[in-house]
């Protein structure tokens, strides 16, 4: 297996695959020399390469773990290096554009099946990697209509073997769902932080555990999330508009002292959340 | 010490005060017989009373731990029972209305100083109580202009002795700040859940850790939070409007593909959140 981009997800994947004996050897490419050295010094990595085309040369499975905007360009850059029959996947948070652009530059006989393991953290980087990051979390696998069924089955098996619960969706349906269940929550947390950043500094010392939980994801990299917004702009605009409507409805109920309506919305939310795990 | 209403906060307070040796005896009033029996069976509680006026009779300090809408009515109901010089406080999430209404029904020689320990959880009830709930968390104490300085100092000392970082604010300033740092986050989490509750049920299985964190508080009691909305309506309407404006600004940036603006908002948020603990 080759991991391109050993950040939080890439390094956790290396650890998890090694610990579960899923692969014989783990090879890594990282852009930065420090990251390559850190990988060489870790137990889960067998070898590193400075050149990504060199890194993928002998691998049966290649996992792209770079930011979403660098996945298709990287596949294009290393396309001459892939072994015949190599199986590619990624861990990007958006899928339609990645699957379309990656498939367009794929050499014959090489397969790409998009993946989105719903695991991660506001903490980025290899230093926060954990071999149990994927355990019992959801993973969405997004074959295109033309994707080989066998390649898809192998990718599904790969994530299941890492302890994930796998769902298959089209890339477009993935993006629409994830806009609501992941990108919208992230944007709300970020906008809340952005609002509070304008308030007096001493308010910070008064933060309760609720604020800490609600905003945790906003500590994530702004660069990564700007790329995600760019990839998933239209579905995200759609759910932001839905949220705006609901917010206006709630504010009206509050303004009109319609406590029955306020209680109804809060109770619907409570029942939903109670059921989530 | 008497605790009126041994829910999550009341029972945690009994445990913490007992463990730290802050009080000699802990007496409890609870509306429900099951709750009184559970208290009697716990190590931190010395005695219970069926009648709240009876419960407060010999106590130097009385802590009201009921929902916000029942604090002033309960003080009025038990006013004949307070010991001379008794010191009252509460743990309600709103302060202006509670301080005003409670002070209006206070007998001569009895002191009330409002408190809001910024601790808690989406889990309610005595069964989730923890003796370390208050430890190293913020607490806001809200004396009125006419409140005895000595009474305020004793309440500040009380929370500090429980390991809290105490800030003094006027009840109105408390409500304005808490609308932004606690009630707004709660409403956003609830509205997000309310939006997702209308989506297909199978989306639930795809929830990532980010969604779980962001919405955790929405599992809290809808009744308690409706009362909080009622008490803190005006400050909450104010910050909801601020949020609406920011949301519109963000959606415009996204629609216009102004990635510099999107990145700027996300980065401002990241820096704010990184600094929060």
Structure description:
The structure is a homodimer of 277-residue chains. Chain A has 277 residues and is α/β, with parallel strands linked by helices. Chain A has two domains: 2-169, NAD(P)-binding Rossmann-like Domain (Rossmann fold); 174-274, 6-phosphogluconate dehydrogenase C-terminal fold (Orthogonal Bundle). Chain A has helices at residues 8-19, 33-40, 52-55, 71-78, 96-104, 149-161, 171-197, 209-215, 222-231, 233-255, 259-274; strands at 2-4, 27-29, 47-49, 61-64, 87-90, 111-112, 114-117, 138-142, 165-168. In chain A, the strands form two sheets. A six-stranded parallel sheet of chain A has the order 3-2-1-4-5-6, sandwiched between helices. Chain A has a three-stranded mixed sheet with strand order 7-8-9, with helices on one face. In chain A, helix 4 (71-78) links the parallel strand 4 (61-64) and strand 5. The first copy, chain A, starts with a strand and ends with a helix. At the A-B interface, helix 7, helix 8, helix 9, helix 10 and helix 11 of A face helix 7, helix 8, helix 9, helix 10 and helix 11 of B.
Mean pLDDT of chain A: 96
Q: How large a portion of the residues of chain A is in β-strands, by DSSP E?
A: 5-15%
The top level CATH class name of the largest domain in chain A: Alpha Beta
Biggest sheet: strand arrangement of chain A: 3-2-1-4-5-6
């Amino acid at each position: 297996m080759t991991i391109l981009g050993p950040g939080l997800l890439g390094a956790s994947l290396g650890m998890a695959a090694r610990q579960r004996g899923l692969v014989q050897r783990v090879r890594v490419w990282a852009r930065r020399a420090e990251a390559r050295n850190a990988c060489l010094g870790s137990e889960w990595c067998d070898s590193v390469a400075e050149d990504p085309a060199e890194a993928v040369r002998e691998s049966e499975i290649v996992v792209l773990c770079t930011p979403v905007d660098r996945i298709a360009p990287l596949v294009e850059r290393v396309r001459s290096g892939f072994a015949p029959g190599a199986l590619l996947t990624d861990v990007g948070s958006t899928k339609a554009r990645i699957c379309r652009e990656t498939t367009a530059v794929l050499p014959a006989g090489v397969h790409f099946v998009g993946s989105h393991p719903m695991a991660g953290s506001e903490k980025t980087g290899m230093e926060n990697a954990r071999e149990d990051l994927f355990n019992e979390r959801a993973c969405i696998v997004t074959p295109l209509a033309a994707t080989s069924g066998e390649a898809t089955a192998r990718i599904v098996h790969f994530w299941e073997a890492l302890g994930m619960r796998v769902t298959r969706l089209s890339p477009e349906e993935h993006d629409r769902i994830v806009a609501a269940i992941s990108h919208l929550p992230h944007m709300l947390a970020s906008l809340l932080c952005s609002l509070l950043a304008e308030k007096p500094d001493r308010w910070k010392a008064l933060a309760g555990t609720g604020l800490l939980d609600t905003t945790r994801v906003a500590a994530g990299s702004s660069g990564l999330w700007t790329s995600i917004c760019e990839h998933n702009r239209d579905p995200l605009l759609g759910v932001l508009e839905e949220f705006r409507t609901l917010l206006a409805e709630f504010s009206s109920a509050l303004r009109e002292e319609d406590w029955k309506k306020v209680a109804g919305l809060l109770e619907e939310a409570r029942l939903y959340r109670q059921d989530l795990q």
